[in-house]
Design brief:
The structure is a homodimer. By secondary structure, chain A is an alpha/beta fold. Helix content of chain A is 38%, strand content 20%. Chain A folds into 2 domains: 9-179, HUPs (Rossmann fold, 3-Layer(aba) Sandwich), CATH 3.40.50; 192-285, Pantoate--beta-alanine Ligase, Chain: A,domain 2 (2-Layer Sandwich), CATH 3.30.1300.10. Chain A is globular, with a radius of gyration of 19 Å.
Chain lengths: 286, 286
């Protein structure tokens, strides 16, 4: 049982930078994993991945209000900081950074960031506020922590693409690493929002992974993308999903569409669908 | 006569970072002065100021296309890199960073930054594209150079306010220093665009400074801001200016308006006016 009292917690940018600059003076490299807390094995895999690539790992726990729309689950998003600290310590994290909202966003903050095209389709259609909020908080967190490497999960694949573009376009001096999605024994991608699911919904949720795998196999075999997408959407509704925001087969590097209508290069199948009031996303390489 | 061949020039981000990280490994602090070239004594004052605050000074020379509108003077903006290198070396600069447009903006760059309120009035009204372009290139340059301190001229006072807000809001780890405007013997603020002026226009140009000083004195004495602004606008037109974009008396910290209609705190008088096809700006503390 890790000693949670041993995990330092920084609440301010100044405290964070004092600790990180101390490590750098000692010659240590620094890895970073941004999270919104409610940690599960998926997050801990990112922390361990960062630990493979850097001497010291910082994980932030910050439920970022700017990436939630007014009708979304900001208020009910699960918060469990003491448990998160325990889990982080056990995964080898050296510092939890948990700033208050006012530390992250001073009252007269006015700057916004748009990443443009990579943020506009898919999630950008259904959660138009999200990637602006993600870009801003990720730029801020990277500049606050100043890590050598930052690890993001492929679970949020479009977010990973957006972050890579942000970092490239703003020349933020950090290496961005994408880490494969962690799944339960039935293939369900781990997510903090899975906690919202009833036992019955959980059974349906576990079908998403298989439907995407089948779609990927068909597209890979040369079937037309629009037909594969339509079939996958039907399969999800049949499986018990209440609503499908999208099932899309896109280019793996920037999630752009295949102009040819068939997969003729590295591809990703990506989806978002609803079970009751819970929205699940998943994706996989084709 | 400084040996210009002794001034190293970095053309790529990789070259720049190799040199700067070498300095940092040796324990040197780094100062940075961004310029669009066509250097004059105003720029060199910024370089010397940076040299007072850091062990090594980088100056960038980059005519940033994203801050010019289509009808503006991007094509004719003065370019004189060899002379700029010589001047920088003489002012104690250790490295000129002169990237090509394609190095700064890859073909598929999509990210944009808006600084919001501080960028919206004054220059933001008359040159609506400018501060978005400034914010993007300054964020990129700061992340490319990673200086400890960066020096900006008060000549572009709203730009200084915008840069301070950008750096604060994105938590870019750098100290921003504003350096007082350098003027010729007649009070005219030095500007690369002064090179466009005829001898006759130069005489008119030199009146701007005096008109602003008088407006500042009146406002400081308690006259109503709107009346002082109107009188200063008339004075500029009478002096021979063809058109006045604005003369404004604003709060010194964020260029916001005084709600009371009179100066009741630290203030700045700021103006933009035209002589033929040349647009001049100036400002001063009240």
């Amino acid at each position: 049982m890790p000693d949670t009292s041993a995990l330092p917690v920084a609440r301010t940018i100044a405290e964070l930078r004092e600790i990180v600059s101390g490590w750098k003076r000692q010659g240590f490299t620094v890895g970073f994993v941004p999270t919104m807390g409610a940690l599960h094995e998926g997050h801990l895999t990112l922390v361990r991945e960062a630990g493979q690539r850097a001497d010291r790992v910082v994980a932030s726990v910050f439920v970022n209000p700017t990436q939630f729309a007014a009708h979304e689950d900001l208020g009910s998003y699960p918060r469990q900081e003491a448990q998160d600290a325990e889990l982080l310590a056990g995964a080898g994290c050296a510092l939890m950074y948990a700033p208050a909202v006012g530390e992250m966003y001073p009252a007269n903050a006015t700057t916004t960031i748009s990443v443009g095209a990579p943020a506009e389709g898919l999630e950008g259609v259904f959660r138009p506020q999200m990637f602006g909020g993600v870009a801003l908080v990720v730029a801020k967190l990277l500049n606050q922590v100043q890590p050598h490497v930052a690890v993001f999960g492929e679970k949020d694949f479009q977010q990973l693409i957006v972050v890579r573009r942000l970092v490239r376009d703003l020349d933020i001096p950090v290496e961005i690493v994408g880490s494969p999605t962690v799944r339960d024994g039935h293939g369900l991608a781990l997510s903090s929002r899975n906690a919202y699911l009833s036992a019955e919904q959980l059974e349906v949720a576990r079908r998403l992974n298989g439907v995407l795998a089948e779609a990927g196999a068909k597209a890979s075999a040369g079937e037309r993308i629009d037909e594969v997408e339509a079939a996958a959407r039907e399969a999800l509704l049949t499986a018990g999903y209440a609503h499908v925001d999208y099932v899309a087969i896109r280019k793996a590097d920037d999630l752009g569409e295949f102009g040819s209508g068939v997969v003729d290069g590295p591809a990703r199948v990506i989806a978002a669908a609803w079970l009751g009031k819970t929205r699940l996303i998943d994706n996989m390489a084709i």
